[in-house]
Write a structure and sequence with these properties.
With 213 residues, this protein is α/β, with parallel strands linked by helices. Helix content is 28%, strand content 15%.
Length: 213
């Protein structure tokens, strides 16, 4: 009897049908590019943080550059001949726009190379939003930031006696054209080591500074 030739197992072609009871493996998906809104695994999604002072939030590290010497407009009060007296710059503005003018002055100072810790901003009317926010954490924590001296410090002019001297003092006459302005401006001039910038009504400013000379 003739036997059929046996085909070696190694010569058989590949199986098409998977073995019984086993399923063909599903190919793993290739991950696509991660969008900017998707955080990396294990990295928490950033939440709301305590806001930083406007100077830090809006400006990168300033590039040192010589600041132009400010020129007081015609009619500004003349200061006595005193080498220690700061330069005076008057920026005319209505009470409603004095704070905006003061913030623009701070922007220019930072862009010209002034360090944030060189600048003190005083308001005679409504407080700057940053000051109001920081005071919500307590009086001691608020004034401790002035002592740190590493950023622009905003304060109410009624507390000018607690303000420490800085190279530049910016005053926003944004309200209360009475006793607060008359008392705060001469003190602010004493606190300014190099430059005093006053934003507000020229007549009110001249009267207050003239009375303090």
């Amino acid at each position: 009897m003739l036997q059929e030739p046996q085909i070696p197992e190694s010569a058989q072609g590949p199986r098409v049908t998977p073995a019984a009871g086993r399923t063909a493996p599903t190919p793993r998906p290739v991950p696509g590019p991660r969008s900017a809104a998707t955080p990396r695994p294990g990295r928490p999604v950033p939440g709301p943080a305590r806001p930083t002072p406007p100077a830090q939030r809006a400006h990168p590290a300033p590039v040192p550059a010589p600041a132009p010497a400010p020129v007081a407009p015609t009619g500004a009060p003349s200061l006595p001949e005193n080498r220690s007296a700061p330069q005076l710059q008057l920026i005319p503005a209505p009470a409603g726009g004095a704070l905006d003018a003061a913030e623009e002055a701070v922007d220019l100072l930072l862009e010209s190379g002034r360090a944030p810790g060189d600048i003190l901003v005083l308001t005679t009317g409504e407080q700057h939003p940053w000051a109001a926010h920081e005071l919500s954490f307590g009086d001691a924590a608020y004034w401790a930031q002035q002592d740190a001296g590493d950023d622009v410090f905003f304060a109410d002019a009624s507390a000018v006696d607690r303000a420490k001297p800085r190279p530049v003092v910016v005053v926003a006459v944004n309200g209360d054209a009475g006793d607060t302005v008359a008392r705060a401006l001469p003190v602010a001039r004493d606190r300014a080591a190099a430059l005093l910038i006053v934003c507000g009504d020229p007549q009110t400013i001249n009267s207050a500074l003239g009375a303090g000379v």
